[in-house]
Write a structure and sequence with these properties.
There is one protein chain. The chain has one domain: AttH-like fold. Helices cover 3% and strands 56% of the residues. The strands form two sheets. A ten-stranded antiparallel beta barrel has the order 1-2-3-4-5-6-7-8-11-12. Strands 13, 14, 15, 16, 17, 18, 19, 20, 21 and 22 form a ten-stranded antiparallel sheet that branches. Strand 10 and strand 11 form a beta hairpin. The radius of gyration is 19 Å and the shape is globular.
């Protein structure tokens, strides 16, 4: 039997998985120009193999968000090492997740939910509604990928129109949504990943996961094509404040496509326990056509660690009372 993503069913969470996440990025126009990213992670504490997430619950949730003001070059980052979901989350027929951070004084309500033909994504930074314009992009044609030492299910809504607000500023734009889940936990992972949106409604997702290189293209008519990809760094490495080294400019070859990428903003490193990764908006030249997208780069960790998350006893007691 061929393993295949089943939509819209697979928008919902899956049992007995090590890790699962709902990821969004996009570009917005209002009084200023913006880019954004947010991800909600659901993990099995015992399977995910992230030792710094020792906490007295089996299923843990955590969230990472970014808001880039492309006009002023200001970057706002938020890493929430623990969020709690509301009692009514996952109780509806369609996707509904309401969550918050119990670890800070200010209260912000977060949400990822489906309302008919739209997805709502609400964070501290923005409140957006996303409408799908094309059929889903299933990575590797089926949404199932064998990566060798692990496997994953993976689908994308690669062309979403957006309307909503950043604070009180009305914005519109285009977004990208990934959903991924795997029964395999963290295995000294490292990867390079790109999402690319062309002005002719062609979208490309490509990655290099520990030497496994793949690209899937969604053409304007919705046709999908999966091809091998090659990735070559251009220019010098950027060294972050955590002393991690990242190549930020790349040349990518995918079939007939020659792609060259550049970051819109350089300092986009995110820090989570011992995991440091670069996540940010990019410009791209695709066969002479200007495009935009995102790059995510978890470099191979060669002994460079940020501080492991240490849970204070008072925090653990607070969590126990809330669950």
């Amino acid at each position: 039997m061929i393993k295949r993503v089943d939509l819209p069913k697979d928008e919902l969470p899956h049992d007995n998985q090590a890790i699962e996440w709902w990821y969004f990025n996009g570009f917005l126009n209002g009084k200023n120009k913006y880019a954004f990213m947010t991800t909600l992670f659901k993990a099995d504490k015992d399977k995910v193999n992230l030792k710094f997430l020792k906490i007295p619950v089996k299923t843990i949730y955590f969230s990472h968000s970014l808001l880039f003001n492309l006009t002023t070059k200001k970057v706002e980052k938020e890493v929430l090492p623990l969020v709690l979901v509301s009692s009514d989350s996952f109780k509806r027929k369609d996707l509904f997740i309401n969550y918050f951070s119990p670890l800070r004084k200010e209260y912000y309500n977060y949400e990822i939910a489906r309302y008919d033909d739209k997805l709502r994504v609400k964070t501290k930074f923005f409140d957006l509604f996303l409408k799908q314009n094309k059929k889903p992009l299933l990575e590797n044609q089926t949404g199932y990928i064998d990566l060798g030492e692990k496997s994953t299910y993976y689908y994308t809504y690669s062309n979403l129109s957006v309307s909503g607000f950043i604070n009180n500023e009305k914005v519109t734009g285009i977004a990208w949504h990934d959903k991924q889940w795997s029964n395999n936990g963290f295995m000294n992972d490292y990867w390079l990943w790109f999402s690319l949106q062309l002005p002719n409604n062609t979208e490309i997702v490509c990655f290099d996961y520990k030497g496994k290189k793949m690209a899937t293209i969604s053409y304007p008519n919705g046709r999908l094509e999966t091809l091998e990809a090659s990735f070559n760094p251009i220019g010098n490495k950027w060294i972050s404040r955590k002393k991690m080294e990242y190549h930020l400019e790349w040349e990518i070859k995918i079939g007939k496509f020659l792609i060259k990428t550049k970051p819109m903003i350089t300092d986009c490193e995110m820090n989570f326990g011992f995991i440091n990764y670069w996540e940010g908006p990019i410009t791209a030249d695709v066969n002479g056509i200007k495009a935009q997208g995102f790059m995510e780069y978890l470099a191979e960790n060669k002994g460079k660690f940020s501080k492991i998350i240490e849970w204070d006893k008072s925090v653990l007691d607070k969590i126990r009372k809330m669950i």
